[in-house]
Amino acid sequence: MTKGRMAPSACAACRSQRKKCSDECLLAPHFPSDDLQRFAIVQKVYGFNNIVKMLKDIKPEQRGDAVSSLVYEAKARMEDPVNGCARAIHELQKRIADLESQFAVKQEEIMNMHFTFENLLSPLTVESVDAGHDLCATSQPTDTMFEEVDPMMLWEPL
Prior knowledge:
The chain is mostly helical and 158 residues long.
C-alpha cells in the first residue's frame, strides 16, 4: 500500500471467504462490505462457488437483477426449505385468480346496472312521440303521457 492511499474494504463475499478483494472481484458490486448478512444467506443456500459460476454465465448488465433474484430466492428458501419461493408464487397466482373472479362479478353487476338504466331511459320512438301528441290533444291527462316525455326536452335554455 502506498502512502496516502487507503486499501479498499473487502466485499462481503471476500470477507466471508477471508480473501483479499481485488478490483476485478465479480461479487464486489453486488455484495458491499457492510451487507455481510445478505451474502451469508445466499452463500448458505447456493454456496460460494455456485454463486460465482452463475454470475460468470450472465451478462454484466444483468448481474444486478440476477443477484436480487438469488437473494429473494435464498430468503424464501430459508423461510420455507421445502417450497421456497414456489409457495409465494402459488399464493400470488391464487390471489390473482380471486381478484379476477371478483372483477368479473363486478363487471357483470355494472353491465346489469347499465342494462337497467338503458331500459329506464330508452329513447323516444316516432310512435311514442305521435302518441304523446295525441294524448296531449285529449282533455284528460294519462300516466303514459308523463312517462314518455324526456325531462330534458321540457327545459329551454335562456
